[in-house]
Design the sequence.
Protein backbone atom coordinates (compact mmCIF):
# COMPACT_ATOMS: atom_id res chain seq x y z
CA UNK A 1 0.00 0.00 0.00
CA UNK A 2 2.89 2.32 0.63
CA UNK A 3 3.92 1.77 -2.92
CA UNK A 4 0.57 2.94 -4.24
CA UNK A 5 0.72 6.18 -2.24
CA UNK A 6 4.22 6.93 -3.55
CA UNK A 7 3.16 6.32 -7.17
CA UNK A 8 0.06 8.44 -6.74
CA UNK A 9 2.14 11.23 -5.18
CA UNK A 10 4.51 11.22 -8.17
CA UNK A 11 1.66 11.61 -10.66
CA UNK A 12 0.02 14.47 -8.74
CA UNK A 13 3.13 16.67 -8.64
CA UNK A 14 2.53 20.03 -10.44
CA UNK A 15 4.91 21.63 -12.92
CA UNK A 16 5.97 25.15 -12.05
CA UNK A 17 7.31 26.08 -15.51
CA UNK A 18 5.92 28.67 -17.91
CA UNK A 19 6.13 28.13 -21.63
CA UNK A 20 7.31 31.50 -23.02
CA UNK A 21 7.69 30.44 -26.66
CA UNK A 22 4.24 31.76 -27.73
CA UNK A 23 4.97 35.12 -26.07
CA UNK A 24 8.25 35.42 -27.97
CA UNK A 25 6.45 34.64 -31.24
CA UNK A 26 3.86 37.35 -30.61
CA UNK A 27 6.58 39.86 -29.69
CA UNK A 28 8.53 39.16 -32.90
CA UNK A 29 5.41 39.51 -35.06
CA UNK A 30 4.62 42.88 -33.44
CA UNK A 31 8.21 44.01 -33.91
CA UNK A 32 8.06 43.18 -37.62
CA UNK A 33 4.72 44.98 -38.01
CA UNK A 34 6.08 48.14 -36.36
CA UNK A 35 9.28 48.01 -38.41
CA UNK A 36 7.30 47.81 -41.65
CA UNK A 37 4.71 50.48 -40.85
CA UNK A 38 6.96 53.13 -39.25
CA UNK A 39 8.56 54.38 -42.52
CA UNK A 40 5.07 54.85 -43.99
CA UNK A 41 4.07 57.41 -41.34
CA UNK A 42 5.25 60.56 -43.17
CA UNK A 43 3.60 63.94 -43.40
CA UNK A 44 2.00 65.02 -46.69
CA UNK A 45 3.62 68.46 -46.85
CA UNK A 46 7.32 68.39 -47.67
CA UNK A 47 9.11 71.49 -46.43
CA UNK A 48 12.81 72.23 -46.68
CA UNK A 49 13.68 73.99 -43.44
CA UNK A 50 16.87 76.06 -43.37
CA UNK A 51 19.57 75.32 -40.83
CA UNK A 52 20.47 77.89 -38.20
CA UNK A 53 23.83 78.66 -39.84
CA UNK A 54 22.63 78.35 -43.44
CA UNK A 55 24.08 80.63 -46.08
CA UNK A 56 21.70 82.98 -47.85
CA UNK A 57 20.30 81.89 -51.20
CA UNK A 58 22.03 83.30 -54.24
CA UNK A 59 19.41 83.32 -56.97
CA UNK A 60 19.54 84.99 -60.38
CA UNK A 61 15.92 86.13 -60.08
CA UNK A 62 14.22 87.80 -57.15
CA UNK A 63 12.02 85.29 -55.35
CA UNK A 64 8.29 85.51 -54.74
CA UNK A 65 7.86 86.23 -51.02
CA UNK A 66 4.62 85.59 -49.14
CA UNK A 67 4.75 87.23 -45.69
CA UNK A 68 2.43 86.26 -42.85
CA UNK A 69 1.94 88.96 -40.22
CA UNK A 70 1.50 88.42 -36.49
CA UNK A 71 -2.27 88.88 -36.87
CA UNK A 72 -2.46 86.45 -39.85
CA UNK A 73 -2.53 89.14 -42.56
CA UNK A 74 -0.87 88.23 -45.87
CA UNK A 75 1.55 90.33 -47.93
CA UNK A 76 2.89 89.46 -51.37
CA UNK A 77 6.17 90.62 -52.92
CA UNK A 78 6.68 89.76 -56.61
CA UNK A 79 10.14 90.16 -58.20
CA UNK A 80 11.44 92.74 -55.74
CA UNK A 81 8.37 94.99 -56.08
CA UNK A 82 6.76 96.66 -53.08
CA UNK A 83 5.09 94.50 -50.45
CA UNK A 84 1.32 94.59 -51.04
CA UNK A 85 -1.43 93.35 -48.71
CA UNK A 86 -3.56 90.58 -50.25
CA UNK A 87 -6.18 88.08 -49.18
CA UNK A 88 -5.70 84.32 -49.48
CA UNK A 89 -7.58 83.87 -52.79
CA UNK A 90 -5.74 86.76 -54.49
CA UNK A 91 -2.39 85.51 -53.23
CA UNK A 92 -3.11 82.01 -54.50
CA UNK A 93 -4.20 83.27 -57.96
CA UNK A 94 -1.26 85.68 -58.39
CA UNK A 95 1.37 83.17 -57.26
CA UNK A 96 -0.13 80.42 -59.48
CA UNK A 97 -0.01 82.71 -62.54
CA UNK A 98 3.50 83.92 -61.73
CA UNK A 99 4.87 80.40 -61.19
CA UNK A 100 3.29 79.16 -64.42
CA UNK A 101 5.07 81.96 -66.30
CA UNK A 102 8.39 81.35 -64.45
CA UNK A 103 8.54 77.69 -63.33
CA UNK A 104 12.10 77.90 -61.94
CA UNK A 105 11.47 80.88 -59.63
CA UNK A 106 11.80 80.50 -55.86
CA UNK A 107 8.76 80.90 -53.60
CA UNK A 108 9.53 81.80 -49.99
CA UNK A 109 7.27 82.14 -46.94
CA UNK A 110 8.21 84.61 -44.20
CA UNK A 111 6.34 84.31 -40.92
CA UNK A 112 6.32 86.85 -38.10
CA UNK A 113 8.09 85.70 -34.94
CA UNK A 114 5.06 86.49 -32.76
CA UNK A 115 2.59 85.03 -35.28
CA UNK A 116 0.82 81.71 -34.99
CA UNK A 117 2.16 78.70 -36.85
CA UNK A 118 -1.35 78.06 -38.18
CA UNK A 119 -1.07 81.09 -40.49
CA UNK A 120 2.17 79.82 -42.05
CA UNK A 121 0.74 76.33 -42.38
CA UNK A 122 -2.38 77.66 -44.17
CA UNK A 123 -0.17 79.58 -46.61
CA UNK A 124 1.86 76.42 -47.32
CA UNK A 125 -1.34 74.49 -48.07
CA UNK A 126 -2.66 77.29 -50.33
CA UNK A 127 0.64 77.43 -52.23
CA UNK A 128 0.49 73.68 -52.74
CA UNK A 129 -3.03 74.06 -54.18
CA UNK A 130 -1.73 76.84 -56.45
CA UNK A 131 0.70 74.36 -58.03
CA UNK A 132 3.92 75.47 -56.34
CA UNK A 133 6.14 72.40 -56.00
CA UNK A 134 8.98 73.87 -53.91
CA UNK A 135 8.52 76.32 -51.06
CA UNK A 136 11.23 77.64 -48.77
CA UNK A 137 10.87 79.20 -45.34
CA UNK A 138 12.73 82.44 -44.68
CA UNK A 139 14.75 82.80 -41.52
CA UNK A 140 17.00 85.33 -39.91
CA UNK A 141 20.68 84.57 -39.38
CA UNK A 142 21.70 84.12 -35.74
CA UNK A 143 22.76 87.36 -34.09
CA UNK A 144 20.75 89.58 -36.43
CA UNK A 145 18.48 91.93 -34.54
CA UNK A 146 14.72 92.18 -34.93
CA UNK A 147 15.18 95.69 -36.37
CA UNK A 148 16.98 94.31 -39.46
CA UNK A 149 14.16 91.87 -40.22
CA UNK A 150 11.48 94.57 -40.33
CA UNK A 151 13.31 96.91 -42.73
Sequence:
Amino acid sequence: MAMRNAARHKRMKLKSEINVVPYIDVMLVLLIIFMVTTPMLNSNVDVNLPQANAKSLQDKKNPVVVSVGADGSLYLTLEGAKKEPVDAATMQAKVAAFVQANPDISVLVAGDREGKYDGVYQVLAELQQAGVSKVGLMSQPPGAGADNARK
Observations:
- DSSP finds five helices and five strands in the chain.
- The domain at 64-140 is CATH 3.30.420.270 (Nucleotidyltransferase; domain 5).
- The first strand starts at residue 64 and ends at 68.
- Residues 54 and 99 are 25 Å apart (CA to CA).
